[in-house]
Batch of 3 targets.
Target 1
Amino acid sequence: MGFAEPLALLFAGLYGILVVFYLWERWRRRVAVPSLLLWEVVPEDTLRARRFRPDLLFLLQLLLLACLIAGLARPYFSDGASLPPRGRHVFVLDTSASMQAREARGTRFDEARGQALDLLKSLQADEEVMLITTAPSPEVLVNFTRERDAVAQALERLAPTDTGSDLSVALAFADSAMQRSDVPTELEVFSDIPRSQLPEPGRDHAKVFQVGETDVNIGIEALQIFQGRFQDYRRARAYVLVENFGHREGHGFLTVRLENQVVNRSGFTLPPRESKEFVVHGFRGPGRVVAQIEATDALDADNVAFGWIRPVRPVRLLLVSAASPLVDDLRQLVTATPALQLSVVDPRTFSADQSRQADLVIFNRFVPDVQPATNTLYLYPPRENTLFPVAGDAENIEVLDWDTHHPALQSLRPLAALPLQRARIVTPPAWSQVLLWSRTSAQEFPLALAGEDNGHRVACITFDLESEGLLGSDNLNFFLFFMNLLGWLAPSGEETAVVRTGEVTPLGPLADGPVRVQYPHGEVVTLPAGQATLQPLYAGEYRVSVDGTSRLLLANFFDPVESDIGRSSKEPTMPPQPATHGVQTIPASDRHEYGSWLYDAAAALLLFEWAVARRRSV
Amino acid sequence: MQPEHSGTEAVAPPPTAALAAVLAPAFLRKLDRLHLTVRRSLSTRPGNTPMPRGAQGSGIELENYRAYGAGDDLRHLDWNAYGRLDQLLIKTFRAEREAPLHLFIDTSASMAFPTADDKFVFSLCLAASFAYVSLRRNDPVRIVGLSEVWPQRHLGSPFFRHRDALLRLRDFLLQLRPYGKTALAAGIAAALRDHRSPGVAVVISDFLMEPEMYEAALQQLAARRFTVAALRVIGPGERDPSSLFRRGRLTDAETGRQRFITLSQDNLIRYQQALAAHLERLQEFCNRCEIVYSTTDTDAGLEQILFRDLPALGLLR
């Protein structure tokens, strides 16, 4: 408890003035009257000539004045603190992946944590400590407190993550906390980053406890699984990039497994600061791919990486088309693509029931009166149709623009000025997004559009693909565009995602119910209701379960900055430059002022005193 | 002559301006219309020998004729009547009478308080007005200040017998100060020892004393066949003291005794009830003793008292 404005207590001198007023009122106020004869009937106040006897009114006024003076002094109480702190310390503890590196006496993190605990023990009882961690993003783990045990327990519970960190943001955090503090505050940084490499805001007044000397580390810098949309596991290939981050030659073995079955094991020798790429194929099925390095190095987090080979479910195509070269082209395409199955139906015999057996229905030069309840692709719709109103025809046109953000056009560079023979000029429906644009002298119009209508994916190619020739050698871009469009119209429905540690990952559409996540270390956590994202801090498998169904999330640690654990120098711990010292008062955030209560009490006392005085005068 | 000061004094400048206003020609012309009503207590003028019943009265105004008897003063024979009627007739004359006015003014310290009421100055102005009304009729006027501070409890002026004495009368009034304790009965008794001839006695006081005291004083005058008038001077501060104070130490102007009073509403009512009872008892006593009584409010003004209230009571006409 204390006073934010102790000088206001000088107003206590008003007590004396109040007493003087009171005495003056009682003793100095003399009224000469002609005679006391008529006043004999009036009861006399019980006063003693030589004794100060305050009455209820005086006591009320005294109390009222006390409330006002105390209110002006802004009294406060603080949680568990009876005295203002002597000083404060902001501990910034690096929890990035590089702190997992093993040194002679343990990991870097263990050493840094030991230094933090030692410093914590050496602090005075009235000093406060804030604890900030850095990875994956800065977090105030413990706000300013004098409870050493709480800070020590938080330190003991901490572990470095498999993520990178931005120390500059963490130091900016600490700097803002120091700016807000009104007592002398010191910044202590426990990291493997030398002071000279710290960012500007905190470098000058930070006391850096640098840990870590070794640079021996060989890590997997990348693992990529290449598998086309309609390719099965036999065509899948894994590319593994291994790098030697040390300054000495490194040796080791790379083992690639598919669901615990070794697919490839290779030994390697890497010169200092060099990398090597391994291509692995011959996978005998779909499933989880694990690449692991066996090498003598200081960091384990980058010695393993995960990939995923999709199990390919055949896509059932239903082509509704009269006999045409396009039917032949598609038959050839399906023959060459094991993941595609094709059925062809004449438009005159087409019924909606047939579409229920297909994953994707392709209408060539035909639009049914009733749209099928499945994903559909329309090719060169007829002039008269209900779905895509045709405003006219255009001939000898070119692709002038395209939407590079749509999945159907990713990794493609449609050739501008590529001539097309004819196209329908249609008005894009409201639900659609134009993928390819062309124009006549009169107007722009779409050459391809796509979107979702009534819960189904729908696309339309307005130019005559049949006359262009799908498999023509000059139309490779159109073919790739067509295959991408098929892939978008028939999504794989993958249940396994491969992500990077530290990235916030959406969990995708989930069933209603509690979401339980099994972490790589075996810990099972139920996510709060409404949380639909996950930020994996450690590399490994995360199994997300909802209502009996589960989904696999594979998190990889690929961060060459963190894997490069070598430091240019080990700088001695330097005392920081003195920071500006403030007035030693408890920070406003810790204060609980109750002056307003006193003002309320004063107002109540004033009313009560007025009532008492009025009652006396009646 | 200076009084012996008591503990509680009213140190105030002499009311020169107030008396000057009363004795100004304009106000005196108004007073010329007034007469002092005297129902009894006439005395012979000085120089006239008091005569036995039936004896020739002294005077110059012819009253009657009667037959000459042995021993009658031959200077009163009407020789014209003897010549016409051949009878010796003696002229008888009406003896001239006068109504001396005794103005008893309470000069105790209580007359000075409350200061805002100006009771004492008002009393002097009232006395000066009465004095002029009498002097204009050539009736003698005497002023007596009554207070314990004076030797023999009073300070009396000589009789003023003519309007020319008005300035001397004023100077005497200016000598008076409200000092000391009240001595109404003792002062009047001592004043009457010097002048026994009856007349009109006007007692101007606040009568703030035990009833026995003012009853004794007034009874003396009534018993000596004076036409007695008791004028009770009161001011607004005395009627409603809440305008003067709310709480404090009340000090008796005469005795110095103190009393701590909080003037709550209840206490104000108690005081005013006591005041009303006091006035009522004074009036009742005066009525019983055939004494003209009037309560004169200082804030009512002198003219209200002289030209309305007192004529209504029959003291002036």
Target 2
Amino acid sequence: MTTTPSGPAFRIDLAGLATRPAQVWGGVRLVPLVRAEPIEDLRLHQELYEPEYAAVPAGRRTDYLAYVPHGFVADWTRDGTPAAAYGTRLDAPSAIGATAPPERIRVRAPRRLAKRESRTRLRFLPLHLALEGYLALHFGGPTITWEEWSDRAVRHGLSPRAEEAYAGDRVRGLADALRVFEIHPGQCGLLVYVADALAAAFVVPHPDDYRALHRTLLLDLYGELIHHYALLSAAVPEFRADLRTAGPVNSVAELRTAVAGQERAWADFHDDTMAGGLLDPDYRAREVRRLGRFRLARFLPEFRPKQENHIGEAITDEDGRLAYLKTFRLSESQVRRGHLLDRLAAHEWHLPSAAASLGLTEPQLGLRIEGAGFAGLLRQDILDHYRRAARR
Amino acid sequence: MESYGDLVAAEDVLLFVNAAITGTGQREFHGGAAEQQLSLEFLHEYMLVNYRGPYAAALALDINDHNAALIVRRLLESSRDATAEQRHTEGRLIARRLELLPPQRVYRLIGELRRAKVNNRRTRAIVRDWLAARPDQTLDAVKYRAGLKRALRHTHLRPAAAETGDFLYAPRRRSAYQAPLLDAWRRAHHQQSALYELPYTVAEGFARRHGIPRAAFLERIEPRLTGLERLRLQESARAAGATAVTADGAALARMPLTRLASYVLGLPPADRVARRAELTGALRGAARRAVRAAGAEEGGWGRVAAVLDDSWSAYGSGVKRRRPLAAALACHFLLAALAGEYTALWTSGRTDALLARPSGPTPLGRRILDALDTAPQRLVIVSDGWDNAPPGLAAEVLRVWRTRLDPEHRTSVVHLNPVYDAEGFDVRRLAPTVPTAGLRDAEDLPALVEFARFAEGRTDLAELTAHLAARTESFLTAGATGRRPTAEETVR
């Protein structure tokens, strides 16, 4: 009963989105993405929840519990005509008071992580699709009951699995950087770099949506790595335009050419080098929903240790054009856990062959499983045996 | 031959003047209030210790009221460090500047001196002279009751009339006052109709106490409103249902340019479109008056191009709402009046100045390039200096222009910056080759452009000192001729 994401290889393609100059504030670099033609027939808007918990039934007597500060609602049309953004609903304070006493925490229970609210509306919790995909990675545990695995592992799989992340307002400097950021006309996306590590990518279909959702980046989750970088890093330098490389300039027209060259050079450098870790690798995508001509999918990386690994969710149209994207950068330990589970699953959870493929001895792999926090999966006597073998 | 020390001194003085023109210790778009105050405090301390003469002379320049009050306070605090001659000049400068400051600022300043326990003979004499020159002490007693009380107590002065003394210190001693204003104040405690004889700010408190509905109160207090109060209140009064409070065209036509620009930007776009002719006329008129007041000639500047910043950062902050944008809009109309042939380029690419609103990035480099394309004689850039699309492009374009395309200086370029950068202790510069000056009111633009030449290249201290001396002289003689400042000047 593995829930391995399957499907065709998926690549993030920023075609149609032009990179504009970055704006730097302290250690945070924000790179705007501008769409020449906005997508009119799919619109996103925010659904604000009161600060409360969300519980989603994940199975019998199991609930997925999360603190969800906001959700997104996607509206689309079937015939390609423009969809109207669903306006923010304002409740009178008395109405709120009548339904929810403020001194208590309500547990809100959206029934599904992605729920169809009507024929052309879908409500989903941003990043939770992606995180759910990561947490449910080989959630079921061993498929074949090799003798090394404990009873618990075989019966209950990896449950419960938990990962930690930081809310955006805990990432130092991010709030100020988002506040002083000047939104470009036609802007439909933003790449967030913290200490020049790509922290998150965010793309929406329409500039109006972006304007409305800009500050939700502060409500999002950021990995441990990003939080630590923000805390420890010094200010990053700006990439200042430099016309000395353009050669001698003898007229205003030549100056104009040189300026255009500078703007192009930045966009190329950014897309090739700075965002390379996000754009170059292949991802394993799994479709979650179809929304008219669009599809909502979550994707997982190949879990290559010591490299950038992003999980995320995307809405693409029938040509693979990106309408919505939200990514989360995994920290190094999360990548290692994902990598380990992936290797084990690839070898049907058979320890000796998995160890061989990783270039390790069996006890070394056993200790690595323990180190990754999965000690409970191995039988205690087998683990003790591995420890003894390693000590020798 | 000027020494290295002279160069540093000149730079320091220029830096301080820029800071004193723009810095208000309030929150800005990029910096918090605490940072701003700390930064300004440091600059004042540094100037006072190292360059006392120029520090006092700054009072004669178009610096803002916040910094003027700070300078006065620090000069009075450190009287004993000054020579007799310095004291004489300082005393005249302070007296003249206090005349120009709004009274509430002076009363606050006296309160600060009291807290700092500064009560030397000079301070008492200055406060005495200032109080004696106030036109109506009974009005001050009602309107600035706490301030006047503190000032008299601090300097051991007697009030102008015995009645005023009772009013301030023992208001219940008398059952009636001779002065109508004082008596109105007494009656307003129990008689609703009396409060309409009081100034608006005082009556407002009484109206609240009597539970008078806002609309009814505004309707009846309307004749007592000052021009600025009327302007400030008219929108909220209309919302409250009081139709009597309206600023007529004549009031608009009397307003100073930058304040008028702020007012226009505060109106919703639909109103601006509906009143386009009226507002444009008022702005043009104010600009023409400012040009005449500055002693410049309309159309005398030849071909002028302006790059005006209406990026999102021109919003300023909650406490200085749209201040940088208002400065840019005012400069737009002033330059239109000064120029023979005028091109305005807003960073957003919009062309309708009246509908300006802060939004979008700051592609200064591109806009400067467009402006240079028109081959202007003068290029004026009004921006907070945060060039970000891409960063540093404006500096590069200006550098290449100066070194490769216009080495003969056919175009003079100047950058005016309305925002103080707390971190840099100065206004942000665009490029080392372009002089940058702090900008408070667009009306000072001709003087600032003249002043900015000091910031271009190597600064000559002797020349700068001479300039400061000339400004001090004209500032003091304007006061000595006995000309009372007009209401407008007091407001500024």
Target 3
Amino acid sequence: MDAEIREVLASYGRLPMGVGALGRSDDLYRAGLTSHASVNVMLGLEDTFDIEFPDALLRKGTFESIVSIASALVSLGVEPAVHEQGTK
Amino acid sequence: MTTITHLNERQFQAPERRVGEQIGADVAGPAADDVDSRSRFPREAIDALREAGMLGALIPVELGGLGLNLESVAESVTDLARHCSSAAMVYAMHQIQVACLVRHGDSDELRAFTRSVATEGLLLASATTELGIGGNVRTSSCAVQREGDRFTLQKQAPVISYGQYADAILATARRAPNSPPNDQVLVVCRKGGFGLEEKSTWDAMGFRGTCSLGFVLTAEGPATDILPVPYGEISSQTMLPVSHILWSSLWFGIASAAADKARRFVQAAARKNPDMTPPNAMRLSELTTVLQQFQDVVFAARARYSEISDNPEKTTSISFAIAMNSLKVSASTLVVDVVQRALLICGMAGYANKSPFTLARLLRDSYGAQLMVNNDRINANNAQLLLVSRGV
Ligand SMILES: Cc1cc2nc3c(=O)[nH]c(=O)nc-3n(C[C@@H](O)[C@H](O)[C@H](O)COP(=O)(O)OP(=O)(O)OC[C@H]3O[C@@H](n4cnc5c(N)ncnc54)[C@H](O)[C@@H]3O)c2cc1C
């Protein structure tokens, strides 16, 4: 799941530094994610994972880090890839 | 939707409300024409507010303030604006900065500073806009430089209202020289630690008493004067909603002052000829419908925010951002609508500069509202947010 999240961030996050340099729990806003771009990231995630973020997840905290995005996705029923389990 | 329309009768009788009204009528109003014509700082009104402890209105009693809530401060902003928009704007801008300090200045040093704002009646100004970024206040190009436990900062600020009269200026900047433009902090630049080099004068259409000159701001001070939380949080939880609530309360004050002139004009005509309802009374009725709509929008927004202001989950939600942006756009256009209706009602008596019914100052002031963070910018933000909104 991380790889797909990173791909979406790379396409839509408009981060000044490469997504590769980001740690899983690095603060994406501090890394340059604007609220404008976070909306695009969200749209990208909805398309990639074929889900819709409910109202309760529509807030800044959801997009704070790769970890927070992943846990939001898991809460929406996206299966974390097996090899990633345990790295949480 | 939650109950957002309960109007609190108590607000209308509270003593702090009378202070705003009194200072408005006795001090700000009589000086308003001079403030406007000379583009000068509304010194007497701000001094009177300071003396009444109103500069510390939002600061908790434990820290020496009056401990009032945002709703009563918004009421006093409306009252002042009925008499002098510029004095009200200075007061509103100051309170926006105070609200940020009270909610986010959570360290011993900043608490001590907040206390001195209340006890010494310090006046706070704001430098969020920056040359090159226009009104996009969520990005900065200047950055804080830290050396040990000190910071330095230089900012090209196209507008710092009443900067030269302020005891501290709260400025946005990037967290560090290598931070991206949106990784911002809010820095308290204290008198003695900051310098202002004038870059432009202030001879504008309206809000002439705000003295909104352009400056190069240079500041230095202890690193503890940098607010501990990211500016993004301060902005969505406090600065943005409080700005839009206090500004819209202010614009409502301008609109009600104009409506009041229109009403008195129509009533004067009716007294001359009690047999016949003056034709303008119809326009007054239409104006009153818009004014009522305006008031409801403003009051509902205050209630909406006060219900959730302690809940960051809710204040950082997309739907709340959309609501606060919409408030700003509605209020800033309604104010022009109401003043223009009043102008049509008063006719030449409103158009004349020297007449008891003159609307010149109110009309000029009302046009500032749509530019002060341009509505196009706000609508563009909402357009983006609406792509993912799930409705109210
Ligand atoms: C009375 C008054 C007092 C002020 N006091 C202060 C103060 O104390 N401190 C402070 O920091 N600032 C202050 N401001 C300035 C700040 O609030 C202004 O909003 C900001 O400087 C906007 O300037 P602008 O109109 O040149 O820029 P812009 O917002 O860039 O607007 C200029 C034009 O560009 C267009 N535009 C630009 N970008 C976009 C976009 N993304 N989407 C759509 N349209 C766009 C707009 O339509 C508009 O026509 C004050 C403003 C006023 C009116």
